Each structure stands twice: as C-alpha cells, then as structure tokens.
Structure to design on (517 residues):
C-alpha cells in the first residue's frame, strides 16, 4: 500500500471485495448485480476516464437519479484519482451552471433525460471538457467546447489499477442545498469520508441484519455515506436501491426482499404512514434510521405502533461533518434524542460567546473530528466563520443530557424572536403534527411591527381529513406557551421540501412574502 493513502476510498472498496468475496450485492429494478461485476466495471471505467484526459484532482460531476451506474461512477472516479462532485438530479440549469463553473468541473456523467439541463448549463461553463452519457446515445447538440462521450465506450477499456492519492487529497466536493443562499462546495478528503463512514458503521452495527432498502438519493451526503458504511461491513449484504423514493414501491420492495434495515428522512416516514402499513408484512424490518431533519415524536410513535417490531433510530449530521455526527446505537436507543456522538467525534454545546455550556443548556452544536470538512471551496471567509480553532460550528441549536445524548432543537437561522422571546419552529411543528387531521407542518416567522416577528404555520392535511385554520390554532394554543403558538395557519396542498426531503422553510418564507404583497 502506498504510504499516506491508508484511507483511500478506492482501496476501501477493493478491500471490501477481498474481505467479503463475490456476492449478490445490489438489486435495482428487478435485476441483481454481483459485487465483483460492479467492481470490474468501475476498474474499466476508471481506465476510460484516465484515457480521455481526466487527471488526478479533476472534479467530475455525477448527475443521475439512483442507479447502479452511480456507484460504479463514484468508485471509478476515485480509482482514477479524481474528485466526485455529486448533484441531485432535480437541479435547475442555473443551479447546475453555478456548480460547473464554481467547481471548474472537467466532466459530467449523466443520463439522456437530463441532457437538456446539462446542455443549457454547459454553454456557460468554459472549463467543462466532456459530457459522458450513460444508458443512451451521445447527442450532437452539446456546446462546441464540450466532447460527448459514451459511458459504455469508456467502460470497455482494459482494467487499470488505482491511481495513488493521499489521505488528505480531495475525494468529494459536495454542494450544499443552497437553502440559505448560493450552494457552497464542501471539501471532503479521503480521510474525512473514511473516518466518518468507519465511525458510523461502528456505532450502528447489528449482526445478521444484511438486507437494506436504500431510497435516499446517492447524490446527497446522507445517501453517499450509507453506501460507504457498507464498505466497512464484516458480512456480505444486499442493498435494494430505489431510483427515487416512491412510498408504494418502497412498501412493495420491503416485503419482496424481506428488508431488515432502511434509511429514511422524516418526510419519507410521514408519506409511508399514509399507506395501509398494517396490511403489509414488514415482520423482518428491525431498524429505520432517520436523519437529515428533525423527527416529530408523534410520527415516531405512530410508526412504531403501526409497524410492530421495528424501531426508529434517529441520527444527526451535516454535509460539513462528512454526513454523520451522532446516532442512536441499536441497543442503546434513546427516543427523542439524535443519539450519542459517533466514535471519534467530539461535540460541545457553546453559547453565543463561544463558551461551552453544561448538560441541559441550549446553544450552538459544535463538532471536532477527522470526518469534518477541510473547508468550503473558493470561500475562505465562509470557511473561517464555520471552522474556528478546529471546531465545526454547525449553526444548529441543541443540548446534551447528562449521559451525553444529543438533542437538536432547531436551526439558528430559523429561530423566531417574538416579543423578545425565542421561539423554535420545531416546537410548534411537533405539536401541529400531533393534530389528527394534519399530515405535515412548517412554521416560519413574519415581520411584525409590534412584536418583531409573529409565528405563522403552514399545514397540509391527511387524505379525506378536514380542519379549519381556527381549529388548528385552538389545538396549538392548548398545547404551547402563549408566545409559541401560531396566530396564523395556512392550509396548503403540500408542504415544500428540498430535493433531499427536508422541510424548505426558505420556500415557506418566500410564499408568505408573496401572499402579503
């Protein structure tokens, strides 16, 4: 092994194959894929990428819905010494253009249905050299400065070895969702992602549970880390991959493949709760990992009541931490918390002056670990604000209990200050979610000349359910302090979510602003 690349992710994948042997490792749309075949495809594609000019350190954008080619592309890019730059397939042309230009991407790997978006974005990305198309013909309509290449042709190259890269070389450049402004590139090294995935695996081990259903977008930090965790496995496992999350299809696959574990976001759990779960055979399902957004207690209780034998394990993290910061170990689950810091991760709660707070005190969640990013791409000022003295300042508010379990209260940027009192939107959202007619809720503040801000709620209702804004306000008023309950409730068809299933409060604030003219 080359000195200094002990944490190389391409080596991690190769070692996993050597350790676990060739086995059925992936199911996608009724086709089963063997681990050795996928590894062989990645080795050939890596050689093809190098042959077409992709050099170590080059950024390669991967813009695809979930499919086996995503995992093949990631492994191939790492084998070629390049940098994976994943982008959620729901991206707009303007958003993709920003990422291509900001990252100075050398190539983009995509699929035919996304080529229109790619062509528009590539027109203003002069440093982009190649568009690689998987599963279809290479178009003639690409900008003149861009070569069109076939994924299948590149994959026909003779296999090649792993291009040496150091532990601290960049492995992934992951753009945040941009809900607080322009998306920023989070720089994650091989060491960062190796450390985070190894620690997440250690904290979540459960012997014998080898069948997993993956509906998360692999282009998101949560989805990527789930795949990397699998490379640390000590026994062969089978992952069933959804192209994108569809509740009815999830339920079908969970039964068909006798799924034992799955990873979801709270919005997915709420969508599944709208289905007749009691009629399904989910008797093999043991653990549901929930992350990426807060989970209302009512939602957790309803799930565990309606799917007996399965337990929701909440976790917490962010792209800047490598994806995970804390998780609830299967045998030491503490409902309501997001668990214990994973091995190697130190968590402190700090006040506004940067001083550590004792157990129970609410403040900013700060993290120190090998998995924490090296900084934001081309954004030294933002990096300096977020990484201070080796600590990642997450911008989330929370507290630790006396046993070290972490509780997330809310985002600092979402805090509502009403009449001088702090109101955390999640407090109101959890209460609203307990209303028998409410499917989902989102709470934001609007400017108020007298109080500074007023609490406003948006709710969507369950199918065939009925409730008036006045009834929902009365329900909340009985259960929340006078400064916390919403004075306005807007009933909407659907609560806006980001591309990875998080509540999009930015969209709610924009809607409120439009309605008020």
């Amino acid at each position: 092994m080359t000195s200094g690349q002990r944490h190389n992710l391409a080596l991690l994948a190769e070692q996993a194959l050597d350790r676990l042997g060739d086995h059925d490792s992936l199911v996608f749309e009724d086709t089963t894929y063997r681990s050795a075949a996928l590894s062989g495809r990645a080795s050939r594609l890596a050689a093809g990428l190098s042959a077409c000019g992709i050099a170590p350190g080059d950024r390669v954008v991967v813009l695809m819905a979930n499919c086996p080619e995503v995992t093949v592309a990631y492994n191939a890019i790492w084998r070629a010494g390049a940098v994976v730059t994943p982008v959620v397939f729901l991206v707009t042309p303007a958003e993709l253009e920003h990422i291509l230009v900001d990252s100075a991407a050398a190539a983009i790997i995509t699929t035919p249905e996304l080529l229109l978006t790619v062509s528009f974005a590539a027109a203003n990305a002069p440093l982009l050299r190649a568009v690689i198309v998987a599963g279809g013909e290479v178009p003639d309509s690409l900008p003149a400065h861009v070569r069109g290449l076939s994924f299948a042709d590149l994959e026909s190259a003779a296999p090649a070895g792993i291009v040496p890269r150091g532990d601290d070389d960049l492995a992934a450049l992951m753009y945040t969702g941009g809900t607080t402004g322009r998306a920023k590139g989070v720089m994650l090294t091989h060491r960062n992602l190796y450390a985070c995935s190894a620690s997440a695996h250690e904290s979540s081990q459960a012997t014998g549970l080898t069948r997993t259903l993956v509906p998360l977008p692999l282009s998101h930090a949560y989805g990527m880390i789930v795949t990397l965790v699998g490379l640390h496995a000590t026994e062969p496992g089978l992952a069933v991959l959804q192209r994108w999350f569809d509740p009815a299809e999830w339920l079908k696959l969970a039964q068909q493949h006798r799924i034992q574990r799955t990873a979801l976001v709270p919005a997915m759990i709420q969508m599944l709760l709208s289905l007749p779960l009691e009629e399904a055979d989910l008797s093999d399902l043991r653990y549901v990992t929930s992350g990426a957004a807060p989970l209302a207690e009512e939602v957790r209780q309803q799930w565990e009541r309606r799917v007996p034998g399965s337990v929701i394990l909440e976790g917490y993290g962010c792209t800047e931490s490598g994806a995970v910061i804390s998780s609830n170990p299967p045998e030491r689950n503490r409902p309501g918390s997001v668990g214990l810091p994973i091995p190697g991760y130190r968590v402190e709660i700090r006040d506004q002056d940067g001083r550590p707070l004792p157990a129970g005190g609410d403040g900013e969640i700060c993290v120190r670990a090998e998995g924490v990013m090296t900084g934001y791409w081309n954004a030294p000022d933002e990096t300096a604000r977020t990484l201070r003295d080796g600590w990642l300042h997450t911008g989330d508010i929370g507290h630790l209990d006396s046993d070290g379990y972490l509780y997330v209260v809310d985002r600092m940027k979402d805090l509502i200050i009403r009449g001088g009192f702090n109101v955390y939107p999640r407090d109101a959202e959890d209460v609203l979610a307990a209303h028998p007619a409410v499917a989902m809720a989102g709470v934001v503040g609007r400017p108020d000349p007298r109080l500074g801000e007023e609490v406003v709620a948006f709710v969507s209702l369950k199918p065939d359910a009925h409730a008036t804004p006045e009834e929902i306000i009365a329900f909340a008023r009985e259960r929340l302090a006078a400064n916390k309950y919403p004075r306005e409730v807007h009933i909407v068809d659907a609560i806006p979510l980001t591309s990875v299933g998080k509540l999009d409060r930015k969209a709610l604030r924009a809607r409120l602003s439009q309605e008020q003219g």
Summary: The first helix runs from residue 9 to 20. The chain has 15 helices and 27 strands. The first strand starts at residue 24 and ends at 28.
